[in-house]
């Protein structure tokens, strides 16, 4: 049986595209959550769907956090004071 590839070569643009796609999915799911919350105040029928969507949003946010934590941030090598932003 073959082993999964655990090393990927992704460029900065690839990572940006992945992050944008994840943020779009989070936005869509968050909109769904708002609609489910509004509908459940009228008739509480689909709480399981709400919990599943909420879990998916949490997983996607966690994934974004892990991507963020793996980035190597630029710091100049000189001893001068560096102000970012």
Features:
single chain; 85 residues; mainly alpha; 2 helices; 64% helix
Q: Summed up, what is this model?
A:
This protein is mainly alpha-helical and 85 residues long. The protein is 64% helix and 0% strand. It has a domain of 58 residues.
Shape: flat
Strand count, sense and barrel status of the largest sheet are: none
- The proportion of residues forming helix, as a percent range, comes to 55-70%
Structural class: mainly alpha
Strand content: under 5%
Number of strands: 0
How many helices?
Answer: 2
Distance between termini?
49 Å
Order of helices and strands: HH
Q: Which parts are unreliable, with pLDDT below 50 for 5 consecutive residues or more?
A: none
Radius of gyration, Cα only, in angstroms?
A: 19 Å
Calculate the mean pLDDT score and round it.
Answer: 86
Structure in words:
The structure is a single chain. This protein has helices at 12-42, 47-69. With 85 residues, the protein is an all-alpha fold. The protein has a domain at 12-69. The radius of gyration is 19 Å and the shape is flat. The model has no long low-confidence stretch (mean pLDDT 86).
């Amino acid at each position: 049986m073959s082993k999964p590839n655990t090393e990927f070569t992704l460029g900065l643009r690839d990572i940006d595209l992945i992050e944008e796609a994840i943020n779009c999915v989070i936005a869509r799911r968050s909109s769904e959550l708002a609609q489910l919350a509004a509908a459940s105040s009228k008739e509480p029928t689909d709480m399981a769907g709400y919990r599943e969507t909420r879990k998916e949003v949490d997983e996607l946010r966690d994934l974004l956090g892990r991507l963020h934590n793996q980035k190597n941030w630029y710091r100049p090598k000189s001893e001068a004071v560096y102000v970012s932003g």
